[in-house]
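Moderator note: this is an archived Q&A kept for reference. The question asked for a predicted structure of one protein chain; the sequence and the answer are reproduced below.
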Amino acid sequence: MPVCAPILFKPDGAGLTSTRRTGIDSAMTFAPPTPRAPSQGDGLDGLLQALRPAYADEIASIKRKGVRQRRLSWLGRGAASGLAIMALVVLVTGWRSIEPDHHATLTHSLADGSSIFLDAGSAVEIPLIPWKREARLIRGDALFDIVHDQGNPFVVHAARSRLSDLGTRFLVQSEGEAVKVAVFEGKVEVTSQTGHKLALSAGQAAAAGEKGVVVLSMPDESESTAWRQGRLLFRETPLDQVAAKLSRYRAQPVVVGTPALARLKVNGSFRLDDLDGALRALEQALPVRVQDKGGVAVLEPTSRRH
């Protein structure tokens, strides 16, 4: 029995181009008029060879698609490798932001057991890689309680200054280009943006800025970190500084209406969950009254003298 390959076509060659009809006619000449054993040039191989010229365009298109898909496959692998490298670079060099909810404080624990306590309105950045002992103070006040590692000190970047901690507890306050540091335990090496260095021990404070590092009087820890216990503590603090501090924790900011009031001194302890009570206390203790002006609590002078 000869080998026969079925061919499907429309009657009278409808829908076929002349080239394809010629190819089919040529292929059909390979069909023997009488049954005989197939030879090397006959049968399915011969039929395919005859059809090849008629379908040369389709065959070439299929080959091109195959090459393109192989190229895309390699490109896809290359893109995936590139994305993996980019992800690794981001992981090694990247930072993530840590900041409290609006008008709140926050405690953040680090992988090495150290802790960062953030005052309201403050923000820090820490590395994505947990074993990198660094932090950037973006704004505000942060108390650092750092686990000692002599071979790998913890470094804080604030403004353009650098603080290298040798296992300690210290407060950092970022005020524009100036940075204030108060050391409560251990030691901190302060490096200003000018390269000036100063080593601080427990009970010492300094400010670092464009003029180098300047020694400051040591603030009271209970006063400067009272926000950790949900309170604000003021001792002979100018009223304009009190107003700025209160504004960190209130949706309605507080401002001093006149320069003369700004110099008034405030003494007292106020609860963070009752700042309206703090404003009432200021009205009772000082010759001021609180006026609501467009969503801003303005401290205005009164005729009352103290």
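Archived answer notes: The first strand starts at residue 95 and ends at 98.
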